[in-house]
């Protein structure tokens, strides 16, 4: 059984809802990427140096990151030589296989670190405007749907309207929001939130933070103080520090990730607005160049469109037509 058949079988064993969400959420990237790939296969019938140069340009244009793409091209050349692949159409499964490997190279680290016997604390960090509050609201909805008791902490006390925005989400999804006045100490908000969540026997505490990047030293100090208060009250917490990035900002998201990585221990990425970009290759760049797992992806505007990241669903969402076409040919 070829890679495309295996991929199709594995993906179709999962729920249709998840597969459809990845399919719909990746429409812009797939349309752009598939069109360029089809042109590549039509233009170059044989796998040669020119073919790889053109493929390199397509991948860099999709925001997959220069060093990641160079590494990928080298691996493809070596594997094509080893398997004696001459026809360009026959290299398509190898491209998807290598992409899936790079996205899922450390196995199961894409799942959230949920605690079994105590409250799970998740800290959300990121600059203003990336969809941080919306991500928190959608995650609150998701956890509540799983039957968990959720509390949200309005730790962004600096941005005008941030507390009110989280409040609106709280009302919308039916989740309590712990807050203080604008300008309050975020660490004090976190302390109150932990006490409040404990008194409510909450399973999950979702914490918003300020996203000011003007001064990295202040950002570091602020996040360190917040984390110190949380870990003092709950040893081992926060159990996740999720950096929220906007997929539509491309390489700018990479520079934000590097800044936050220096400022705090980021355990995973929540990538929003993936449905709004034709350059979904940014997922590959983040995973490879920063060595941070992408744990959540935003695939649309609906409440349940923030989905756990799945490397195979992602690759299938990109190459869907090609996968199905070749899987049928070989069956």
Automatic annotation (TrEMBL):
InterPro entries: AAA+_ATPase (IPR003593), P-loop_NTPase (IPR027417), Signal_recog_particl_SRP54_hlx (IPR013822), SR_rcpt_FtsY (IPR004390), SRP/SRP_N (IPR036225), SRP54_GTPase_dom (IPR000897), SRP54_N_sf (IPR042101). SMART domains: AAA, SRP54, SRP54_N. It is found in: Cell membrane; Cytoplasm. Residues 293-306 form the SRP54-type proteins GTP-binding domain. Keywords: Cell membrane, Cytoplasm, GTP-binding, Hydrolase, Membrane, Nucleotide-binding, Receptor. The keyword Ribosomal protein does not apply. It catalyses: GTP + H2O = GDP + phosphate + H(+). NCBIfam families: ftsY (TIGR00064). Involved in targeting and insertion of nascent membrane proteins into the cytoplasmic membrane. Acts as a receptor for the complex formed by the signal recognition particle (SRP) and the ribosome-nascent chain (RNC). Part of the signal recognition particle protein translocation system, which is composed of SRP and FtsY. Belongs to the GTP-binding SRP family. FtsY subfamily. This is Signal recognition particle receptor FtsY. It comes from Salibacterium lacus.
């Amino acid at each position: 059984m070829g890679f495309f058949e295996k991929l199709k079988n594995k993906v179709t064993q999962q729920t249709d809802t998840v597969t459809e969400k990845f399919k719909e959420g990746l429409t812009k990237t797939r349309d752009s990427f598939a069109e360029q790939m089809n042109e590549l296969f039509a233009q170059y019938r044989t796998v040669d140096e020119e073919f790889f140069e053109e493929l390199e340009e397509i991948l860099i244009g999709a925001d997959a990151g220069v060093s990641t793409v160079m590494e990928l091209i080298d691996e493809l050349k070596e594997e094509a030589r080893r398997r004696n692949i001459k026809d360009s159409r026959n290299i398509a499964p190898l491209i998807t296989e290598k992409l899936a490997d790079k996205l899922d190279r450390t196995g199961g680290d894409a799942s959230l670190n949920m605690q079994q016997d105590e409250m799970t604390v998740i800290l959300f960090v990121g600059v203003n405007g990336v969809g941080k509050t919306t991500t928190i609201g959608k995650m609150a909805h998701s956890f509540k749907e799983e039957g968990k008791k959720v509390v949200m902490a309005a730790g962004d006390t600096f941005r005008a309207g941030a507390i009110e925005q989280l409040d609106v989400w709280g009302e919308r999804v039916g989740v309590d929001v712990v807050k203080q006045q604008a300008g309050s100490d975020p660490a004090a908000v976190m302390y109150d939130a932990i006490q409040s969540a404990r008194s409510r026997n909450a399973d999950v505490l979702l914490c918003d933070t300020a996203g000011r990047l003007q001064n990295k030293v202040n950002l570091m100090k602020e996040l360190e103080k917040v984390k110190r208060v949380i870990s003092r009250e709950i040893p081992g917490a926060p159990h996740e520090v999720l950096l929220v990035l906007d997929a539509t900002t491309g390489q700018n998201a990479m520079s934000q990730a590097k800044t936050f990585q220096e400022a705090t221990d980021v355990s995973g990425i929540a990538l929003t607005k993936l449905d709004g970009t034709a350059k979904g290759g940014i997922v590959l760049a983040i995973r490879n160049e920063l060595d941070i797992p992408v744990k959540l992806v935003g695939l649309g505007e609906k409440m349940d469109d923030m989905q756990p990241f799945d490397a195979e669903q992602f690759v299938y969402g990109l190459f869907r037509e090609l996968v199905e076409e070749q899987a049928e040919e070989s069956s």
